[in-house]
Specification:
Elements lengths: L2 E3 L6 E7 L2 E6 L5 H20 L8 H11 L6 H14 L11 H13 L4 H20 L24 H11 L16 H20 L3 H5 L6 E2 L4 E6 L4 E6 L2 H11 L21 H9 L8 H13 L4 H8 L4 H4 L3 H43 L1
């Protein structure tokens, strides 16, 4: 048996050869006997695979493709395909999936960091590889036991729009705005008018519903109930439906759009399909409004933050946003805490005022009594 300590790691590493191939991995334990037992189990498993029925092999690229295909039709499919391109450039995807190593993944992570890619994007890409690895394993392909690098996501200050910032954003999106490179409104092509109006209307719905961009951009008219002023919103990410009630301006936007509807989708692309992730105009408006530190998702944060700042609890906001895990909603907890401490201040102020008035009244009574005695 071969278990050994490597470098500064506190864990025992397992290393051995089988049929001319070297196998090595961390045991993730500081207990030597446990590591030796893991080596025995691993050897037995490899022996069974190699001599009692070899599993089918699959390349890294094929495993990634199959996993992406399994997600076709979901809101995240486009992002997976985009991440797949960056993987293929930096990892030798032609080799068998069973040969993919922690070294390959660590080098991929390091290269992406050197390219200036943020930790959240790197984590999403590694999650794609992890998903493909698990999917191939479930399908019975030959895979190795694989560790994945840890990616630390730094805590960022929650960004949401003030009312003044919202006004600036809506002004930058105003479909009748004038500016450099824009023809006068009455001279613009009908398609240009429509796309400008679409971007403005999408932002209004995002601000007032707190929905994810894809949920609004791909919504169909069947989900709109004008009689009860409801939006029956399907959330592909969490696979559930929510019923949201229209604000006055959402009702105005949808009513206006309903008068000129020409298909099943509230927001259509050039081919008459759902809008999809056509976000360039909105991102450009954010920069023009001086909000370069904001993303489209900031509109969702804005909605949630305003609800909590005006008395709703984190648990109520969780239902509105459609979070499956309360931990996701807890990012807004500090706003709720501010509301609670503000209420505490108001309570103490009222008590203090009541006490002060009682003290003042008592002093006046004593003064009246002294005056009466002097008069006698």
């Amino acid at each position: 048996m071969t278990v050994l300590l490597r470098g500064n790691s506190k864990y025992w590493y397992i290393q051995f050869q089988l049929n001319g191939k070297t196998y090595i991995r961390s045991s993730r334990t500081t207990n030597k006997k446990a590591a030796e037992q893991m080596e025995t189990d691993w050897r037995s498993k490899l022996h069974a695979q190699q001599f009692l029925g070899q599993k089918e092999r699959i390349s890294i690229r094929s495993a990634l493709d199959q996993f992406c295909d399994s997600k076709r039709g979901t809101a995240n499919h486009g992002n997976l395909v985009s991440s797949l391109r960056s993987i293929c450039v930096r990892i030798p995807v032609g080799k068998p999936l069973e040969d993919l190593s922690l070294h390959d993944l660590e080098r991929f992570k390091r290269d992406r960091e050197a390219d200036g890619v943020g930790p959240q994007s790197i984590k999403h890409t590694l999650n794609l590889i992890r998903g493909a690895w698990k999917y191939a394993k479930r399908l019975g392909y030959q895979v190795s036991d694989l560790e994945f690098p840890q990616v630390k996501i730094p805590k960022m200050k929650l960004r949401y729009l003030t009312h003044e910032e919202e006004r600036r954003l809506l002004a930058a999106l105003d479909p009748r705005r004038e500016g450099k490179g824009l023809r006068r409104f009455d001279e613009r092509h009908p398609y240009m008018r429509r796309t400008m109006q679409d971007a403005y209307d999408v932002v209004i719905l995002l601000l007032d519903t707190g929905a994810r961009y894809s949920e609004i951009a791909n919504i169909d008219w069947k989900a709109i109930d004008f009689a009860d002023r409801e939006i029956h919103l399907w959330r592909p990410k969490v696979q559930n439906e929510a019923v949201l009630y229209m604000t006055d301006r959402v009702h105005e936007v949808l009513s206006r759009r309903a008068t000129s509807r020409s298909g099943p989708w509230v927001f259509q692309n050039k081919k008459g399909g759902p809008r999809g992730y056509a976000s360039q105009a909105i991102r450009k408006a954010l920069r023009k409004a001086g909000l370069s530190d904001c993303r489209i998702h900031t509109l969702r944060h804005t909605h949630a933050s305003r609800l909590i700042q005006n008395g709703m609890s984190v648990y109520e906001v969780r239902e509105i946003l459609g979070h499956t895990d309360i931990k996701t909603t807890m990012r807004y907890a500090h706003l709720e805490q501010r509301q609670v401490t503000s209420k505490a201040r108001d309570v103490i102020n009222r008590l203090n005022n009541h006490t002060a008035k009682g003290h003042e009244s008592s002093c006046l009574d004593q003064k009246d009594q002294q005056t009466a005695k002097q008069e006698q």
